Each structure stands twice: as structure tokens, then as C-alpha cells.
Amino acid sequence: MSAIIINGKEYAAALAERQAERCGELRRRGVEPCLAVIMVGENPASAVYVRNKERACAKIGIASRTITLPEDCTQEELHARIDALNADPAVHGVLVQLPLPARLDESAAQLRVKAEKDVDGFHALNAGKLMQGIPAMLPCTPKGVLFMLKNAGVPLDGADAVVVGRSNIVGKPMSLLLLRENCTVTVCHSHTRDLAEITRRADVLVAAIGRPRYITADMVKPGAAVIDVGINRVDGKLCGDVDFERVQETAGWITPVPGGVGPMTVAMLMENTLEAACRA
Ligand code: GUN
Fold this sequence. Notes:
Distance between the termini: 49 Å
Bound molecules: guanine
CATH superfamily of the largest domain: NAD(P)-binding Rossmann-like Domain
Number of helices: 10
Number of domains: 2
Strand content: 15-25%
Oligomer: single chain
Strand order of the largest sheet: 1-11-8-7-5-6
Helix content: 40-55%
């Protein structure tokens, strides 16, 4: 028996149609939704992500502005740019593309973005609201993962969910969202003892490790939903954190890389931008 492939690209395309309609409605009411992205320096991976975001905006009708600051810009210069976008009523979403050059303070920059415009959901206020179950701007990747799980009909209430990875961007918010869905959540990381023994108990397994094909078939419970957040490049080819070919033979559901979580992350960024524009 082979797994149902959860096609993030298809979900994102269907969402884009509805988002384009919502965007048109906002424009008719005189609001032009606008996303501003700040990039510091020339990180090639970031440049690809930012281009994808611009394309998604253009497709839906969201205006986008990309601000590229020089590699050697100071924290103060970065904050001044963020402040200007915070104060600009024509801008509804502000996103600082990560990673920043190592000498810059990422969390200070994230805190600088006005919480209402924090379409990444990385501001401490939005993170705190998520923790307390208060409606908040949610981080795009975990939000997209939850969307896929729900729309694919994966049972969540009472399910054993295992999240591998504890980042502020994916692992931690993902675990909180699954907890909110009444999963019993375990968070694993690089210091976890006997990882395979834990992942084998998962009805829902989210892999956000950053190591190519790290989750092998023997680590997966037959019938489980396996969500692959990894984007790794091996011999010039993209692959996830899950050994897709083998795991798809035993899993119940699985997301591919590319075409799984990635397009959903961008779709949720569009969703957050429209929500911010709607509220403004
Ligand atoms: N770099 C990699 N992923 C992300 C993301 O979701 N948001 C931002 N701002 N930077 C990133």
C-alpha cells in the first residue's frame, strides 16, 4: 500500500484563486494590499525565496516592494527601514528575510516589526499569543502544514504527533498548533535519545531537521501522516528530510519535496498579508 501524496502545489493554486478574488474585493474598497520584504546582502537562497514571494504577490494582485540593503548595513539602518515601513499606511505586511548576516541581531529586527504587520508571525507578541491560544498572525510554514493535514483529512484529535526540530520558525509553533488540535505532542531535537523509537509512535510526523533523507522508512509507523519541511540540495537536486521513495511505501500520507510544504508557506504568507490588509 502506498501513501496518499499531499500536493501542496495544488492546494496553493486553489488558494491563490480565492486570494485573488479577496484581493480584488479589497481593491474595489480602495485598499491595495501590499507586502514589503527587506533583504540584507546577497544570500542566493534568500534571493530565490524573495523572488517566489514577489511572483506569488503578482499572481494574486498584492503589491510588493523589495528593499535590498547592503551586506554591511548596520542594525540602526535596518531598524530605520523597518520603522519607515511600519509607519507607512500603504504597507500592510513587513517581512525581514532570514538569515541576516551573522553580525546583525535577528530577534531585535523581528521585534522591531509592528506586530500588526508581522506577516511572518515571528514577533514575540504573536508568538506569545499563539502560546496562549489567542488569535494571532501565525508563522507561515506551520500554518501551511496544519492546512494540509486538515484538508487531507488526517485525524488530529487525540493523535500522537511528533515534531522533529525545535526552531522558532517551525518546530516550536508547529508543536503549539498541533497541541491546539488536541494532539499529544512530542518535540524532538539533536539531543533526543533514541529518536527512531519516538518517531515510530507518531500518527503525525513533522520533519524539520535540515538533513537530507534523515527520516527513513524504519522510523515511520505504517499509516502515519509524514510532513516534510526540509529543503536540501543534494547533487544539485532538491530533496527533503524524509527518504520519500521508501517512506511513501508505508506512510498513510506524505508530502513531496518540492511541491509540498514550500508552496504552502508562500500561500500562507499571502493569506497573512490579505488578513493584515483587511484589518487595516
Ligand atoms: N528564511 C527562510 N524561511 C523564511 C521565512 O519563512 N521567513 C523569513 N522572513 N525568512 C525566511
